[in-house]
Design brief:
heterodimer, A: 841 residues, mainly beta, two-stranded antiparallel sheet, B: 586 residues, alpha+beta, four-stranded mixed sheet, 20 helices, 17 strands, globular
């Protein structure tokens, strides 16, 4: 929520625009923010003008990004060695002779290259820059804040064809019209340009994995080689094309606040907010040729091509309008009873359209729509329309700031639901007791500055579900038929059985908390426990209707779950001489469980045990439990059957599984819970600020625990799908002399090499489920403020060095702990180093 | 003053509030109430229902029905023939979703603001389509639940777990629905709607469905209390219903046998080309009901699937006619079509085929058939002067201008025909269309020829032999072969006439079932082929032919039709409803 408006994306704001960020988690305070508040609310306020002379501020950051961790691939000699091993393991012969492997190792013979594609795809360092200038000030009646910002970030992909730049603009003005009337205008705009390769990061990472080191990407005279599928051409926009994305966002609020005369403490406020966004994307794809090198003629000959020449322009427009009108009342009676109340009406309308057009088969190399052939053009588009209406109320009362009460409610209507199901009523209450204000504390425990107990309960609703599921609707065009005269008529098909009862998903939360501050804030503590129950989660009734019914059942508000957890924040502020410091460690824990789950009936006790999720923790993994690796042929022979072929396909070093049901064979029935899922249950961190004279140092440590990552595909299978293999696969079980079936086995971390991995070793097991606990230095900065420039009119200036993700501790070896789980096809995580200056004058 | 301005401001803001914030319409869908007030949208609703009638060219080369009968064999080495009854052709639990859509249409059209006559006609059209859906179910499974209302789910699972109706009840339902639909269906449609159901189309489906019901009553046995099988006392009723429907079509004089390229009365023209053209000439008076196609928006891949191997680098050769099918074509003089090849040498393939029923060359590509830019070249190998056989895919050493094996096979591996024949019916022969999605021949579901055959069969079964003979001889005259005499017309000749005339038109699969002849036809039986060989003699070639049976045809697998295969497996329905009783043997 930015400046009172839900849904604005604060991550896209310039950090220098932001005055404050408040995170609300407890039940009662989120209730008032409604619809999206079920998971907590982040309140962001942009900077406002201040009373005083204009104050100009300029900041500039320049930095470089580099990859945190990313596994490397085998080199050519290792590639050949593993390929040989893979071949021999399946009864084949050597693919590369020892002599050839030697040539690959030396890398001097041009026919035996050793090419590092990681280096070719990923830059060592990519620059980024951000600067902005702002002015802030104002008089008694007019206060203002203006900002202009700019940033540019280059991509980690080699070739300098991908970057992201952004311009921010903000104008916030508050005017005091008279004693009773204030008007404020908040206006923010930004423009973002994104130039990308035609293949997204997921695919680019895959293409890197597909590139074998034994081939060069280009022929000797610089053409894209057909080996390795010619995939490196995607790095070059002149060869393969590009994607340009431009977006513009405008966000404005106009608020009028009127203190109603004659009734002390009562004011009325009206806010109108309008957000517009425009986005256009241009995809220019080019067909390119791939070449083979002809030794005889010493020239490159085209042998194939990839892609097609085409242009696609897409366009999105979205608009959302909000109007809020509220009455506020705040007053103290007898200096003891503090009362405040709010009644607010809000309505929201969101509309959007998108449209695209394309032409395929460009003959002339002009990247404009007019230049494409008439014969192969296409277009389509869609639109949406949404609305919401709410009435919100809140009453606060406290007695001497000692006993605090709050009640709030929302009455929300959503256009996504049918008329009689669209309104939801959600309320919340909270109470607080500042024990430290009581005399028995103040008299007996002087070290206690603040001790407060808090308790709250609140509800909220979620309408973020498919629209119009209560209506019978038809998708058109769907199947077609020729009714006559060779005219193809498009048909329409219904979207399924409507649910006339679809309504809000509801969430109910309870919090208990304590705030404690000791010895003049030397030590502060905030502790919270919470329990959240959600109901009416949409799911399809898991009930097998007979095929003769002729349709599937719609989504209904049936499932429920609950989540519990706690959070603890400690703060320690102190100074030793001129050294001021603050340390604030924090830890949180959450875990979720299903309550009711719509599921089929279970056919046996075993089936029930394995598949019934009712009242079961979420976030667990089922699979085979690895109990080690086979140490010898004897070990294989004396173990339960794993391959349904009397273990004849197994080799020493292959993964050995636990025979859970003791039936002498490993199969699906041996699957058991092997660990936690991919969502961390524990988060921890620590902030640390130190200042000494003009120096200050900030650090943020962050980490997570109690979760796993499941490694898949080419992370666990060397040469999966005809790809290259990661270098860590060299540490494997192998024979001393691979050509001699009687030579001894040398143990290693991974099984012996099989192209695409041996079926036994690919089965999902705890061998590939990695404990992902980590701790990293998320942010570090050291800065120095320069006083000497004040005589030049510069009130304040500082210079800083900072970095992100500078240190990481985890068990995952070469894989970044914050990378998406699984296949490792993603844009690499980055470390950054920044130099910043800040001048205020 | 100030407070007035202020009041004005609040008025502007509040009056600009959106009046009906919560009353929104989906912008990417057509909403239901709009449909029933619009002629165009109602037609568009029917478009999907028409398209769901299970007729048309298959989307996979493995799914041609004729490859599951004795008409042809799929070229692949492991064709899906050994499991006759369980084919995906016959398994489809999706039909009831279309029945539901049809039932919904029939509910809603009654509330429509269209005129009463429009409503009646549209309802009749939808009932025809729904009757077609039920006919598809009953011919696959026997009796199936008859559902005519849009079911709703309100914790009434037991009520929804319906039981099967009797096979006879389903046929009675189809009969009643068609009879009532025929009354309200239009006589004619304009050209823009020429493929929609008319009275004649309703009658034509009735002719076919009642013929099936009659034969099941006569040749099948009642099992599972009538869930499958029809009491034999209803035989005459159903044959009579079929005969009446056929008679009405014949007497309407709206349709006739195609005769653009051959005049049977004068005996002038090319009967073979005439027969071939029935399936390529889109303006022809023989067509009663068809599924039309148009390139590129609604195209199919029939040519891509079926082009002889030598013309394509894609995978063609899906339908390879069998020896048994080829021999079912009589000679022009009405004598048996068995090939007389033993110890005979021929100067050219034409010598072998010259007396064949012209429909043979109208339906099947054989060695020497004209096709695209060269004649089809089919021979399995070459014997040199010393009697040594050359039979690999390489040039013939004595005459490197030709290969040891014909450009179109036959050859035991790869995509070549294994039987020595390729399909011609429906195929474009003026050029080789090899790319998928480039064909738009219309699929003829019901043509006048079938109505004459339905008439002949029903008349024969009812003992009206002379009427049957007249109809059969109309078919034979148009084909260009000798008429039959009353004495020559037997049930087996009548059925053979149907097999030949309607070959590869997806009719025999169901004929085999309703005549209950499957178990006799495929008793661990190998289908055969006819392989030409060249004999090299000092620069000249002569032809000899060899009969082949078993490997490599059908991958060397025998075909078995079990008793249970007269009805398909209902397991797909039973998993969701235990009240469905499966057919015997499944």
């Amino acid at each position: 929520m930015v400046d009172g408006i839900v849904g604005r994306d604060f991550a896209r704001l310039n950090p220098n625009e932001i005055e404050s960020i408040t995170i609300l988690k407890d039940a009662a305070s989120t209730a008032v923010y409604g619809v999206s508040g079920g998971n907590g609310v982040i309140l962001v306020t942009t900077k406002k003008g201040t009373l005083g002379k204009p104050q100009f501020s300029y900041t500039m950051d320049y930095g470089v990004q580099t990859v945190t961790k990313y596994p490397r691939f085998v080199n050519s000699a290792e590639y050949a060695e593993l390929k040989n091993e893979a071949s021999i393991n399946l009864g084949g012969g050597l693919i590369y002779s020892q002599e050839e492997i030697e040539k690959y190792r030396e890398g001097t013979d041009p026919n035996y290259p050793d090419f590092d594609y990681y280096d070719y795809f990923v830059r060592d360092y990519a620059p980024q820059r951000q600067q902005n200038i702002s002015v802030r000030g104002g008089s008694e009646n007019i206060q203002y804040f203006f900002l202009l910002g700019e940033s540019e970030q280059e991509s980690m992909w080699e070739g300098d064809n991908q970057d992201y730049s952004k311009y921010n603009f903000r104008s916030n003005v508050d005017a005091k019209i008279n004693d009773n009337l204030d008007i404020s205008v908040v206006f923010g705009a930004r423009k973002e340009n994104r130039n990308s390769l035609i293949q997204n990061s997921y695919l680019m990472a895959s293409w890197l994995q597909y590139s074998w080191p034994i081939f060069r990407p280009k022929t000797p005279d610089g053409h894209i080689a057909s080996t390795n599928y010619g995939l490196t051409a995607y790095l070059d926009k002149d060869l393969a094309g590009y994607i340009q994305d431009r977006s513009h966002v405008f966000q404005g609020n106009l608020s009028v606040n009127y203190k109603i005369p004659f009734i002390e403490g009562l004011s009325a406020r009206v806010t109108a907010a309008q957000d517009l966004s425009f986005r256009e994307e241009k995809q220019w794809l080019k067909q390119y040729l791939t070449y083979n090198w002809n030794e005889a003629t010493q020239s490159s000959e085209p042998v194939g091509s990839r892609g097609s020449n085409s242009l696609r322009l897409s366009d999105w427009k979205e608009s959302s309008t909000r109007i809020q009108a509220s009455l506020n009342y705040t007053r103290s009676f007898l200096d003891k009873h503090n009362v405040s109340a709010l009644l607010l009406y809000e309505e929201f309308e969101g509309v959007g359209t998108n449209f695209w057009a394309s032409r395929i088969g460009y003959v002339v190399p002009i990247d404009q729509i007019f230049a494409g052939p008439d014969s192969n053009k296409d277009n389509d588009g869609s639109a949406f329309d949404n609305g919401r209406q709410s009435l919100v109320g809140r009453v606060n009362y406290d007695f001497l700031g000692k006993y605090l009460f709050e009640y709030s409610f929302r009455y929300d209507g959503s256009a996504k639901f049918p008329v009689d199901k669209r309104w939801g009523f959600f309320s919340g209450i909270s109470a607080g007791w500042r024990i430290s204000e009581e005399s028995f504390i103040q008299d007996n425990f002087t070290g206690i500055d603040n001790l407060k107990l808090r308790a709250s309960w609140g509800q909220s609703g979620n309408d973020d579900t498919g629209n119009f599921q209560f209506l019978t609707g038809y998708t058109y065009p769907s199947t077609s038929y020729i009714l006559g005269n060779n005219i193809v008529t498009n048909g329409m098909v219904d979207t399924g059985v409507p649910n006339p009862n679809i309504t809000w998903e509801e969430s109910e939360m309870m919090n208990l908390g304590v705030d404690l501050s000791l010895w003049k804030r030397l030590i502060e503590l905030e502790a919270d426990v919470f329990y959240r129950q959600r109901g009416g989660l949409l799911t399809q009734r898991n009930l097998q209707l007979p095929s003769t019914f002729g349709a599937a059942l719609p989504f209904e508000n049936l499932n429920s779950d609950n989540t519990k957890g706690f959070e603890l924040i400690l703060r320690h502020n102190n100074h030793i001489g001129e050294l001021n410091y603050r340390i604030s460690p924090n830890v949180s824990f959450t875990r979720s469980k299903w309550d009711h789950v719509e599921q089929r009936e279970f056919t046996s006790q075993d089936d029930n045990w394995r598949n019934n999720n009712q009242n079961r923790w979420k976030n667990i993994y089922w699979g085979l439990k690895a109990v080690g690796q086979f140490q010898s042929e004897e070990d294989i022979k004396s173990s339960p059957i794993q391959d349904q072929q009397a273990n004849s396909t197994l080799r020493p070093g292959d993964i050995k599984y636990d025979d859970f049901n003791n039936d002498g064979a490993i199969d699906n029935a041996d699957r058991q819970v092997i660990g936690r899922g991919q969502s961390p249950e524990i988060f921890y961190g620590m902030g640390m600020d130190l200042t000494w004279r003009n120096f200050s140092l900030n650090m943020t440590w962050q980490g997570a625990a109690n979760y796993n990552v499941e490694q898949q595909h080419f992370l666990i299978q060397p040469f999966a799908n005809g790809m290259n293999a990661y270098a860590y696969f060299m540490d494997r079980w192998r024979r001393e002399d691979m050509t001699d079936p009687n030579s001894t086995w040398i143990p290693g971390k991974y099984p012996s090499t099989i192209n695409d991995g041996a079926p036994n070793n690919k089965m999902f097991s705890s061998f590939w489920l990695k404990e992902a606990t980590y701790l990293r230095l998320k942010f570090f900065s050291i800065s120095y403020s320069i006083n000497a420039l004040q005589k030049f009119g510069i009130q304040q200036s500082s210079i800083s060095l900072s970095g992100q993700n500078l240190l990481t501790f985890s068990n995952l070896g070469p894989i970044d702990p914050e990378s998406p789980s699984g296949r490792l096809s993603y844009y690499p995580q980055q470390k950054t180093y920044n130099l910043g200056i800040n001048i205020v004058f | 003053m100030k407070s007035r301005i202020l009041a004005l401001f609040f008025t502007i803001v509040l009056s600009s509030c959106i009046n009906d914030v919560l009353d929104r319409q989906p912008l990417n869908l057509i909403v239901d109430p709009d449909v029933w007030q619009s002629e165009q949208l109602v037609d568009i609703y029917l478009v999907a229902l028409y398209d769901a009638i299970p007729i048309g060219f298959p989307t996979s080369p493995a799914a041609f029905q004729s490859n599951f009968t004795d008409e042809s064999s799929y070229h692949e080495e492991n064709p899906p023939v050994s499991n006759y009854g369980a084919q995906s052709i016959s398994l489809n639990t999706g039909m009831y979703s279309w029945i539901r859509k049809a039932n919904y249409f029939l509910d809603k059209i009654m509330t429509s603001s269209l005129s009463e006559s429009q409503i009646n006609s549209l309802a009749a059209e939808c009932r025809f389509i729904r009757a077609y859906y039920y006919f598809d179910l009953v011919k696959k499974y026997g009796g199936m639940p008859i559902i005519t209302e849009v079911q709703t789910f309100e914790d009434n699972l037991e009520e929804l777990q319906v039981t099967r109706n009797k096979e006879d009840e389903v046929y009675e339902f189809i009969l009643k629905e068609l009879d009532e639909a025929i009354m309200d269906l239009p006589e004619e449609w304009d050209a823009n709607n020429e493929n929609r159901a008319t009275k004649s189309v309703g009658l034509a489906l009735k002719s076919r469905a009642m013929l099936y019901a009659g034969s099941i009553a006569k040749y099948g046995s009642v099992q599972l209390d009538g869930l499958i099988g029809i009491p034999s006392e209803k035989t005459d009723k159903y044959f009579t219903a079929s005969l009446d429907a056929s008679t009405a079509i014949i007497e309407s004089n709206k349709f006739a046998l195609y005769d653009q390229l051959y005049d049977p009365a004068a005996g002038s023209g090319d009967p073979s080309a005439n027969y071939q053209n029935i399936f390529l000439d889109e303006n022809n008076k023989e067509i009663i009901f068809q599924k039309a196609y148009s390139f590129p928006d609604k195209a199919h891949s029939y040519d891509n699937f079926n082009v002889p191997e030598g013309y394509t680098t894609n995978q063609g050769s899906a339908i390879c006619p069998t020896l048994e099918m080829a021999e079912s074509y009589e000679n022009i003089d009405g004598t048996t079509g068995k090939f007389d090849i033993e110890n005979k040498e021929f100067d050219s393939p034409e010598d072998l085929y010259k007396n064949k029923d012209p429909r043979f060359d109208g339906s099947i590509l054989r060695s020497g058939s004209p096709f695209a830019d060269r004649p089809v070249q089919i021979y399995r190998g070459i014997y040199d002067e010393s009697g040594t056989l050359y039979e690999s895919l390489a040039p013939f050493p004595q005459d490197p201008s030709i290969n040891q094996v014909g450009l179109d096979g036959p050859f035991p591996t790869g995509n070549f025909s294994k039987t020595g024949f390729y399909i011609k019916k429906y195929l474009v022969t003026t050029s080789a269309v090899v790319e998928p999605g480039f064909s738009d021949q219309n699929y003829i579901d019901i043509r006048y020829g079938e109505i004459l055959l339905n008439y002949a069969e029903a008349a024969f079964e009812l003992g009206e032999k002379s009427n049957a003979l007249a109809a059969i001889n109309q078919i034979r005259a148009r084909a260009g072969i000798k008429s039959l005499t009353d004495a020559e017309l037997t049930l087996s000749r009548l059925r053979n006439e149907r097999k030949v005339e309607l070959a590869f038109e997806d009719k025999r699969f169901w004929d085999i079932r309703r005549w209950r002849i499957g178990t006799e036809l495929f008793r661990s039986t190998y289908v055969g082929g006819l392989w030409p060989y060249l004999n090299y003699n000092n620069g000249d070639y002569t032809y000899t032919f060899e009969l082949v049976s078993g490997y490599p045809i059908d991958g060397g697998l025998p075909r078995i039709f079990n008793q249970r295969d007269y009805y398909s497996n209902l397991s797909g329905y039973i998993t969701t409803n235990n009240n469905i009783v499966n057919n015997p043997g499944w």
